[in-house]
Amino acid sequence: MNQTNGTEVTEFVLLGLSSSSEVQPVLFFLFLVLYLLTILGNGLIIITVTSDHHLRSAPMYFLLCNLSFQDLCYSTVTVPNMLSHLGTQHKTISFQGCIAQIFFFHFTGSTEIFILTIMAYDRYIAICRPLHYEVIMNQQACWILAGTSVLGGVIHSITQVMLILNLPFCGPNELDNFYCDIPQVIKLACTNTFVVELLMVSNSGLVTLLCFIVLLISYTVLLMRIRNQLAEGKSKALSTCASHLMVVTLVFVPCVYIYARPFQIFPADKLVSILYTVITPMLNPLIYTLRNAEMKNAMRRIWNYSI
């Protein structure tokens, strides 16, 4: 093979979810439906928030719109490529394409984690300091926080990619997954990767775990504060925090499982990967819209206006 970035490997073979010609069409149809639902759900939230002035100017919905956009991008990084591979026996991806997929996968994923952290901060200010909420979470502050989350995602992803590019790859080139990710790619390096794995676990796993713990503590404090509020405000705040907590759990638990341990391959890894690349981006819009009266009312207004 030709040399590429100092390595003899020019492409990787993705073993995918199944090699059975009978199972692949079923998986293709299933994941196509899930991906279309992801586009529909997240696209609907983006359109609703951007079309409604009240929602667009509210920090919580501004952040929710950003989260839906990241969910849409996050799923798009992996699912279309997986669908194309389910329709062919030639399941390969170039070395450059693999690196690009890792970059955008971790960029969108880490940006989403930062946005979820900002959303927890937003709810804390709204519940614990309601009189100062509009001053603290003004439009400029929201844009700065959103921009900071994107910048953090770029820095995180560049760090991951640079560590991989410094590794030599001379074969084998088979990845036991349906997309390129760090745990599988690192195992194919032709060198001792112990130090790199520790750096990766520190950069991805421990940071994710710490963020998850901080968010759990934050929402526990919020729930304790909500108990002292009036019944009407209490019910609304409880519903909002419950939705946020469900999404946080769906996003963080699989990430902690995959990245907060040494890079060993387990049979459940593919199922967990499906959960946070396909299922979670589809469920997030349902969780936020079904439990949110303002979102449902705004969607009805847009629907009535369109017809």
Automatic annotation (TrEMBL):
Domain of life of the native organism: Eukaryota
Gene Ontology annotations for the cellular component aspect, listed alphabetically: plasma membrane
Domain named G-protein coupled receptors family 1 profile: residues: 41-288
Swiss-Prot/TrEMBL keywords: Cell membrane, G-protein coupled receptor, Membrane, Olfaction, Receptor, Sensory transduction, Transducer, Transmembrane, Transmembrane helix
Chief location of this protein within or outside the cell: membrane
Keyword Transmembrane helix: yes
Transmembrane segments: 26-49, 61-79, 99-121, 142-165, 206-226, 238-259, 271-290
Coiled-coil segments on the chain, per record: none
CDD domains named among the record's database cross-references: 7tmA_OR4D-like
GO MF term list: G protein-coupled receptor activity; olfactory receptor activity
Keyword Transmembrane included in the entry's annotation: yes
One family name in Pfam for this protein: 7tm_4
Topology class, membrane: Multi-pass membrane protein
Family matches, as InterPro entries: GPCR_Rhodpsn (IPR000276), GPCR_Rhodpsn_7TM (IPR017452), Olfact_rcpt (IPR000725), Olfactory_Receptors (IPR050427)
Compartment(s): Cell membrane
Similarity section: Belongs to the G-protein coupled receptor 1 family.
Record-given protein name: Olfactory receptor
Lineage: Eukaryota, Metazoa, Chordata, Craniata, Vertebrata
